[in-house]
Amino acid sequence: MERAPHVNAATVLVDPAVLHDLEVHLMTLDLRLWPVATAPICTDGPRRAFQLRRRMLMARRGAWDDAAHWVPVWISFGASWYSGAEPLPWAAHQTLWRTLEEYADHVRYRLGLGGIPRLDVPEERAG
């Protein structure tokens, strides 16, 4: 059985107060932030976001209770991080984790990437 096409992504809880700033910062690094509740791959995004947030909070047994109302997001890597079929380079991982460290008081995450279905980004057409 063949695995469905996927992308590597970090799952992160983000304080809504910094969501926009974090998204813009990540875009400058060719990293893409996708709120789970509105991600195009979720048929019931709000429910999936609720379940994901709850699972992440429960796994930390109270340590992340301050993030109970934060936004679950996926952060994936743009095309500039890939070289054909080669694995994602460690520099991409390091860039993501260092950036999240800058927002340490406003994000909660577990180190490591998961696989999620492809999130297609519309390409700009050259005029």
Question: Explain this structure to me?
Answer:
- By secondary structure, the protein is an alpha+beta fold.
- It has one domain (6-117).
- Helices cover 30% and strands 22% of the residues.
- It has three helices and five strands; from the N terminus they run βαβαβαββ.
- The protein has helices spanning 19-28, 45-59, 90-102, and strands spanning 6-14, 31-35, 71-77, 107-109, 114-117.
- It is globular and about 40 Å long.
- The termini are far apart.
Topology:
Elements: E1 6-14, H1 19-28, E2 31-35, H2 45-59, E3 71-77, H3 90-102, E4 107-109, E5 114-117
Antiparallel strand pairs: 1-3, 1-4, 1-5, 2-3
- Point out poorly predicted stretches: none
Order of helices and strands: EHEHEHEE
Number of domains: 1
Contiguous helical run count: 3
What's the quaternary structure here?
A: single chain
Rg, Cα atoms, Å: 15 Å
Number of strands: 5
Mean pLDDT: 92
Question: Helix proportion of residues, in percent?
Answer: 25-40%
Give the CA-based shape: globular
Task: Please provide a brief summary of the model.
With about 130 residues, this protein is of the alpha+beta class.
Feature tags:
127 residues, alpha+beta, 3 helices, globular
